[in-house]
Design goal:
This protein has 8 helices and 3 strands, in the order H-H-H-H-H-H-H-E-E-E-H. The chain is of the alpha+beta class. Helix 5 packs across helix 6.
Length: about 220
């Protein structure tokens, strides 16, 4: 990925600028927060952490963490090492006005980004998320609508003889570019049983595979 192709969307510029200009002590404090996991990023924890980061407000810390999460996602889709990615990012940041950092700050900025992108649990989580969403179509939501349809008989078809209960399956999904679409499928009770059975079978197979993989990983 050449540097001329790397641009920083406006919503993330301030957060990345903060990350790039942190002192060494602030980076170390932020790394403690990142390694502690999501429970350390509650509102109260943010206020305590911001106090340790000296000069950074809770809202600035939240913006920095949001930008860092985006950086993990972008890097997961790139083939760059942490060092190369950090260098490309800082070059892009230097071109941003009025958030440009000074040339003398480049080495520290690159080091900051490289260090902050080294949390193994976050990298693994982002790669897991990327694999889960690596598809042209991604599931969004599901609804089943009950439909009642009367059956009439007689010469003028005015005699109500029966009411048929059927179901409309509304499946929402996203295509590339985040465009939302819906499809509707007419199903009956037998179909519902088949769907439930297939989902239960898939869940059981996933549990078996996870158990086997844990055994294999333990022996590595």
């Amino acid at each position: 990925m050449a540097s001329r192709h790397l641009s920083i969307p406006p919503p993330f510029r301030a957060g990345i600028g903060l990350l790039a200009t942190l002192s060494k002590q602030q980076v170390e404090s932020l790394m403690v927060i990142l390694r502690e996991g999501p429970e350390s990023r509650t509102t109260s924890a943010m206020k305590r952490a911001a106090g340790n980061l000296r000069g950074m407000s809770p809202s600035e810390l939240e913006a920095a963490l949001s930008s860092l999460k985006a950086l993990y996602k972008v890097r997961a889709n790139s083939r760059l090492s942490r060092e190369d990615f950090a260098s490309e990012l800082i070059r892009a940041l230097i071109r941003v006005k009025p958030l440009a950092i000074k040339a003398s700050q480049t080495l520290r900025a690159v080091s900051n980004i490289e260090t902050l992108l080294s949390v193994d649990s976050l990298e693994l989580s982002q790669k897991r998320s990327a694999l889960m969403h690596d598809s042209e179509k991604r599931f969004c939501n599901l609804r089943v609508l009950v439909d009642l349809q009367p059956i009439f008989t007689g010469e003028d078809e005015q005699l109500l003889r029966e009411i048929v209960v059927s179901f409309n399956l509304k499946l929402g999904y996203h295509v590339e570019g985040e465009q939302h679409r819906d499809i509707y499928l007419k199903i009956d009770r037998d179909d519902i049983m088949s769907i439930r059975s297939a989902l239960d079978k898939a869940e059981e197979q996933a549990r078996l595979l996870e158990g086997q993989l844990k055994g294999l990983m333990a022996g590595v």
